[in-house]
Amino acid sequence: MLSQTELEYVKGVLNAYYAKGYKYYVVHTVTEYNNEYDVCIYLSKIEIEAVTDNYFSIDKGLKVLLDSSSRTQNSYSSRDRVDGFSGNFTVDNSEFIYTNAKNEYSLTTIPVNPNITVDYSHDMTMYALCFLITIFFTYFFIRDLFIRGR
Q1: What pLDDT is attached to residue 119?
Q2: How far is it, in rounded angstroms, from Cα 89 to Cα 86?
Q3: What is the pLDDT of residue 106?
Q4: Do the beta carbons of residue 17 and residue 62 sit within 8 Å?
Q5: For position 76, what pLDDT does the model report?
């Protein structure tokens, strides 16, 4: 699972690439062996298809690898690496996956991969409901003022 620091960094990466037109993504953790990367992000301007919950298809996208581990002065490898990517890929079952890919598998299957770019704290439905309630009470308040004023 991504740490809170990694999650915030990944959201920043997703936002930066979203501004460049890469609206679709698959993010997954990478179990470390030696000094490898910790997080892998697949990005695409074209919708990514989730064939199963861990098998994806991407066309003309990018693969971004991130290393969030502590560095030493003698570390020469890059913190991140970006390569072009097209094709299918499978994420190991032991990894955590976050995505906004289009589900192609059975509708009876519950999606287990959360979308980390959705911010539920700004739900427009709640704002609309509060606005309607305010209008409702304001109407009755003003109506009562006019009725009592006669």
Answers
A1: 56
A2: 9
A3: 57
A4: yes
A5: 58
Report the alpha-carbon distance of residue 68 to residue 38 in Å, rounded.
6
β-pairing, 55-66 vs 49-50, is antiparallel
pLDDT means over runs of 10, the chain (150 residues) = 86 91 91 77 92 89 84 63 90 88 65 61 67 86 78
First-last CA distance in the chain: 67
DSSP 126-142: HHHHHHHHHHHHHHHHH
- E strand residue ranges, 1-139: 24-29, 39-44, 49-50, 55-66, 80-90, 97-99, 102-103
Please report which helix (H) or strand (E) contains residue 11, including its range.
helix 4-19
φ/ψ of 52, rounded to 5, equals -135, -175
**What's the one-letter identity of residue 16?**
A
**Residue that the structure tokens 């409702």 belong to:** 136
Q: Please, which residues have CB within 8 angstroms of residue 78's CB and are 6 or more apart in sequence?
A: 67
